[in-house]
Protein: NDP-sugar synthase
Organism: Streptomyces zingiberis
Amino acid sequence: MTEAILLVGGKGTRLRPLTVRTPKPMVPAAGVPFLSHQLARARAAGVDHVVLATSYLAEVFEPYFGDGSDLGLHLEYVTETDPLGTGGAIRNVASRLRSGPDEPVLIFNGDILTGLDIRALVDTHTTAGADVTLHLTRVEDPRAFGLVPTDGDGRVTAFLEKPQTPEEIVTDQINAGAYVFARSVIDSIPEGRPVSVERETFPGLLEAGAHLHGMVDSTYWLDLGTPRAFVRGSADLVLGRAPSPAVPGACGDRLVLDGAEVAPDAKLTGGTVIGAGARVGAGASVDGSTVLEGAVIGEGARITDSLVGARAVVGPRTLLHDAVVGDGATVGADNELRDGVRVWCDTHIPAAGIRFSSDQ
Ligand code: GDD
Ligand code: MG
C-alpha cells in the first residue's frame, strides 16, 4: 500500500473570516498548514504517493508543498473546473493512481485531525477482503455526519448521510472520513459528473451487495469544520493529544514560533500557539488559542479558545473568548468579544466598541 487521495475541495470553509485569502487546509494548526499534519501522518504510515484532489485555490498548495519531496512524498495536484463532489473528485484522479485493481488506495477527507492507526485500517481491509473499509468513530450527536451501522462482524449494513429524522438515527457510529478503497471500486465510479461518495457511491455499493467494512476506532478524532474546532485541534496538536510528526517543536503547554516576542510575565497555556513575528504584551494571558504570524496582543489582554489572524491587532485589556479575529483586523483596547463572534479580515473595532458586561 503506497498511495492516497486527499480531498480538499468542495464548498469551501466556515473559517471564512480568516480564509478569504487562505483556504482552510492551509490555515496554520500548531504552526504549520493544517494539511501538513495529514501528509506527515500518511507518510509515517508508509504512504509515498499522494494525489491532492481540489476544486479551489489550487495555486496556494503547490508553491508550499511543491512535489512533496520535503515530506518524503511524491505529491500531485488535480484541480476540478467545477466541484465534482467527494466521489467525483476521487474518480477524477483515478488516472494518476499506480495501484493495480485489487490493491488498496487510501482516501482522506482533508478537514479531519485524527490519531487513526492508518496501517491498522489497511490491515483490517485486507483481512476482511473488503471492497471498501471505512474508519468509524462514535460521537454524541451524529446528525452532522454520515451514520454507519455495522453488524457483529464489522460489515457495514447501511450508510445514512446527515440523517433528517429521529428514526434515521440508528447508531452513534459515524463515517470518520478515512477510507481504504480497492482500486477497482474507484474506477467504477461514474466519470465526468458530480458524485457524492456518501449519498451515491456507498449506498449504491451496499445495494449491489459489495462488502463495505467498518473499523471502529476511538482514537483522537476531530472534524475541523468550524473555527472553534480548528482552534481546539491546533491546541490538541501542541499538547500532544493529537499525534502529528509535523508539529514544529516539542509538545507542551505552548508553542512559540521563531521571531515571536512574548513579554516575560505573559501567560501562555492550554496548547496556545504564537506565530512567527507575533508579539504578546505584558500581563496578557492566552489560553488554548492560536495567534497567527505578525499579530499583536496588547498588554493585559485575555484570550481564551480564540483564533487571532495574521497581522491582526488585539488592544490592551481586550477580552476574547471563543472568537475569531480575521487577518489584518484591529480590535481596539477594552473590547469584550465572546461566544463565536467573527471579526472579518481588515475590520476595525474602536476602543471599548463592543462589551458584554457592564461599563465598569
Ligand atoms: N476535490 C473535492 N471536490 N473535494 C471535495 C468536494 C469536491 O467537490 N466536496 C467535498 N470535498 C472534500 C472536502 O474538502 C472535505 O475534505 C471532504 O471532501 C468532506 O467534505 P465536507 O464538505 O467537509 O463534508 P462533511 O464534513 O459535511 O461530511 C463528511 O465528513 C464527515 C466527517 O467529518 C462526510 O464524509 C460525512 O459522512 C462524514 O461523517
Ligand atoms: Mg467536513
Remarks:
- DSSP finds eight helices and 30 strands in the chain.
- Residues 109, 111, 223, 225 surround magnesium ion (ligand 2) (CB under 6 Å).
